[in-house]
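thread: overnight batch results

M.L. [08:02]
morning all. the overnight job finished for the chain we discussed friday. pasting input first so we're all looking at the same thing
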Amino acid sequence: MELRQLEYFRMVCRENNITRAAAKLHVSQPSVTIGIRKLEEELGVRLLDRSQKQITLTAEGRTFLQGAEEILARVSDLTAEMNDLRLLQKGTLRIGITAIMGAFLFPSAFARFQKAYPNVRITVLEEGSLSIRNRLESGDLDIGIMITSNLPPRLESVPITTGQILVCLPEGHPLCKRSSVPFEELKDQPFILFREDTYSRQIILEECAKFQFTPRIVFSSGQIGTILELVRQGVGISFFIEDVVRKQVGIVVRPLAGPLRLVAGLAWYKDRYLSKTARAFIGSFGKSLVPP
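M.L. [08:03]
and the structure it wrote out:
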């Protein structure tokens, strides 16, 4: 039994006519006729009733058609899967990362992925979480490594870590004496924030609005090191998740009295096909993160 015989049989059943089936399959009519006849001889049953003007299925033919459809569907799925695996060996992946994720979550996962799939070409774009959201929705990126708190419903995500936002102060700052800092006491402080396309900036501005004041932003940057050094030099205060500022020399960190937390993880567009290349990359962060 050959797959092409199953394809001939299925098409004849759909068209109820051998000539039309042959035309749809781009083969000659005798090829279809001989293929189905050999199939019947091998099975030892009649699959088609040719006694009437229009070809109809016999009872055995109806049973066989169901099985043939399942076989051909599985073959089609396997072909698509193998093609996907082929692309996995020499595919491309477009990733968006934030500065913080790029510094702390991305390097080790990237190294593991490159070791396993050295021929996959990865394009990395470093932007803020809000910009990455837009690029995921427009199809410019396959995966975002970003703050995944409050994502729009069109984006799917898996969390990797959760962090509390801490106030970063230069040594000797009066607020260093506090065990925790009420946000309203930051009203007159100079702020050093990430640039406007970042969710971390947005959440701080929302908190300022909540306490009815407009912050005095003296500097904005996309670079972690630049912001931390400006805090260290006493230019202003800033805000980072705890993993970033742990053991920073010359900087004192304090929790906010009203805790603010951010979830960081991987995100992608929900209704777009997630390739095996993308799934493999997600798996480099942990196999349990890969979506079903």
